[in-house]
Design a protein that fits this description.
114 residues, two-stranded antiparallel sheet
Length: 114
């Protein structure tokens, strides 16, 4: 499933629901439908910038979590490893973060699910 973010300040941002959910959970927002108001913009930008910094400081943690989840399944543990994903969480946040910055600059809301 895809989530489309919209704002009058920039082009639409489309991302997979599981990526959008991870980002929106940081902002205490529902992935199905919602809004980040112009007033909430500064706090949302600060939170996502903080998460971006943490993700870049600990790049292996996302890959390790993915690898653990992939190999601890109902069939037991296997010994192979998943290939490292080249798109880290900081990169996934970037398009929405840029939209939020533009929306904040122009005092616009960011909407999704509408």
């Amino acid at each position: 499933m895809l989530v489309t973010f919209k704002s009058k300040a920039s082009s639409e941002v489309i991302m997979f629901e599981h990526d959008a959910k991870r980002i929106l959970d940081l902002l205490n927002k529902d992935v199905k439908i919602g809004v980040i108001t112009a007033e909430e913009g500064a706090a949302a930008i600060a939170r996502l910038e903080q998460e971006t910094s943490e993700s870049r400081a600990h790049p292996a943690s996302d890959s390790v979590q993915h690898d653990i989840a992939a190999h601890h399944n109902a069939g037991g543990d296997d010994t192979g490893h998943e290939p490292v994903q080249t798109v880290n969480f900081a990169s996934r946040i970037h398009p929405l973060l840029e939209m939020l910055r533009e929306a904040h600059k122009h005092n616009n809301d960011v909407l999704w699910g509408v």
